[in-house]
Design brief:
single chain; 17% helix
Length: 314
């Protein structure tokens, strides 16, 4: 029999970082640092060769940055697709070319004239499914060149709107020309662009002054550690990193799964969408989905079946 259970498991899901080199470290990224630099810092400090992140934060932003370690790097593509939540502060009346405080001022208008009611209406109008044009200063590639490189070269290129979803957009504070909002949104949402769009909606313009990510997928700011506290960090095991349905397979199927054997989709009963395959010891074997009556393995994790309890970086 194959047992299925929904995403979250109860109890302590964290393993001590010094006893497991495969998993996710939840970092509270400081301002002024790129996500790639933060990953390098973690890699050097902990003596780990394989590390990456699960969702870029702009240099001015702080907050939740999932750092994938060891076999956890195979989860990065799935973490990128998770929903996010932010606290953001905008300034009305000033527009910049980067849409945030680091950019060159390109327009100024009287932002103090905007009323709370007008801003609240603009927030309500930006809820739900919609499209958003990515900013020129972004890492998206167009014609093989990142948009921010084109922007720095003085180019302005047409960008196709992208589908996004905003589930929460709440006004937390309003002291003109500054305002503070809470945002819960889908992947690919640029809060800089959202702030600029809100400024346009109230006919004042606006730019992003502060941004803090408080949630990324299953990871929240309460779990995050700062760079100077990496030694105190707890590692989230790979089997607890994704909010996907779980399937436990008997020992007889462990080797076939790890070998990528194309098992019939009926093996997974009525499961739809992407799911996780675990062994009877709750170790992650694979992330998979079904397609045309067959099992498609998105990622397999043979490293986790043989993992031990050696020191981090050993």
């Amino acid at each position: 029999m194959i047992a299925a259970a929904r995403g979250a498991m109860h109890g302590n899901i964290h393993g001590n970082i010094h006893g497991n080199i495969h998993g996710i470290l939840v970092l509270d990224k400081p301002a002024g640092m790129t996500s790639a630099t933060a990953v390098d810092h973690v890699r050097r400090t902990l003596g780990i060769s394989r590390a990456g992140h699960g969702g870029t934060l702009d240099p001015i932003a702080t907050g939740v940055l999932p750092i994938c370690l060891g076999a956890g790097t195979k989860l990065a593509q799935f973490l990128l697709a998770e929903d996010k939540a932010y606290l953001a502060e905008g300034v009305l009346g000033i527009e910049t070319d980067t849409l945030d405080r680091t950019g060159r001022v390109v327009a100024e208008r009287p932002g103090a004239a905007v009323s709370r009611e007008a801003l609240a209406e603009a927030l309500a109008a930006h809820l739900g499914e919609q499209t958003q044009i990515p900013p020129m200063y972004s890492a998206i590639k167009q014609g093989g060149v990142r948009l921010y490189d084109r922007a720095r070269a003085g180019e302005e290129v047409e960008r196709a709107p992208r589908p996004i979803r905003i589930d929460r957009l709440e006004l937390l504070a309003f002291e003109p020309p500054r305002f503070r909002i809470a945002v819960a949104c889908s992947k690919g949402t640029y809060v800089r662009s959202l702030i600029a769009d809100l400024g346009t909606a109230v006919a004042a313009g606006a730019h992003l002054a502060e941004l803090r990510r408080i949630r990324s997928g299953r990871f929240c700011i309460e779990q995050a550690v700062t760079l100077d506290r990496l030694g105190e960090a707890e590692l989230v095991p790979p089997e607890h990193a994704l909010d996907l349905e779980r399937v436990t397979v008997p020992r007889a199927l462990v080797a076939p799964v790890l070998s990528g054997v194309q098992l019939p989709a009926a093996t997974w009963d009525t499961i739809t969408g992407r799911f996780q395959i675990l062994d009877e010891d709750c170790r992650l074997l694979a992330v998979a989905h079904t397609e045309a009556g067959r099992t498609v393995y998105d990622r397999v994790f043979p490293e986790l079946v043989g993992r031990g309890s050696g020191a981090l970086g050993a």
